[in-house]
Amino acid sequence: MSNLVIKNLHVSVETNEGDKPILHGVDLTINAGEIHAIMGPNGSGKSTLAYALAGHPKYTITEGEAYLDGENIVEMSTDERARAGLFLAMQYPVEVPGVTVSNFLRTAKTAIDGEAPALRTWVGELKESMKKLRMEDDFAQRDLNTGFSGGEKKRNEILQMELLKPKFAILDETDSGLDVDALRVVSEGVNRIHAETNVGVALITHYTRILQYITPDHVHVFANGRVVESGGPDLATQLEDEGYDRYL
Ligand code: ADP
Ligand code: MG
Ligand code: MG
């Protein structure tokens, strides 16, 4: 079975004052088809984990390993990680003026598959996915994330996930800043892709709200750069009542 195994991961981020250690030994295993909610207070290192796994140049893995289907991704470039089947939906998607959503997606798909998708099926898939995510057709011709509302940016991340068909997806606060309608559309999208492709998901979130729509198999609490507690969906309910105070 496909899996993503993170062992004793230590990560530093590059700052103006030099490298700053953020993650202090994270262990986490996600099997294909599992949904893991990664929760925790602001500043606990959730995005750092996401960036480090995706291969962001400012985040250095100083110790530990991460394996995707047995292959050590720590030694891979960002592109190689994506080709191996890893996908990151960013907390703050980057605006790219001059590159349309359609061109970006086709370029990314070509890079990941090693060949361009057949035009006719591709256009059909893109339209179909956009429709399910309640996006108008002309959305594909807009410049990537440029002037997008919060909800449009997050739906666009899910559109990428659907078309790129990763083995593992890290969704970093895909729920933040969404109104209830957008949250429902995004959650339905994740659930549909999960059911259709058996993708393994790390759902990073500060709030329990999205877990009313997406049911996690496992819940992990992050604090001060470590996983401090793991449990089932009940743990999220408990956090909803009690907050993160007792981990600080
Ligand atoms: P979370 O996503 O859980 O809110 P982050 O991973 O974004 O947490 O941040 C964890 C810690 O690392 C915070 O204390 C934050 O200030 C620090 N940090 C992250 N990125 C940088 C950076 N580029 N420069 C300085 N500090 C950073
Ligand atoms: Mg499942
Ligand atoms: Mg974050």
From TrEMBL:
Cited Pfam families: ABC_tran
The UniProt record lists the keyword Nucleotide-binding: yes
Gene3D superfamilies in the cross-refs: P-loop containing nucleotide triphosphate hydrolases
ABC transporter domain ranges (all copies): 4-248
Keywords assigned by UniProt, alphabetized: ATP-binding, Nucleotide-binding
InterPro entries attached to this UniProt entry: AAA+_ATPase, ABC_transporter-like_ATP-bd, FeS-cluster_ATPase_SufC, P-loop_NTPase
GO terms, molecular function: ATP binding; ATP hydrolysis activity
Matches recorded under CDD domains: ABC_FeS_Assembly
Protein family membership: Belongs to the ABC transporter superfamily. Ycf16 family.
Protein name from the UniProt record: Fe-S cluster assembly ATPase SufC
Organism of derivation: Flaviflexus salsibiostraticola
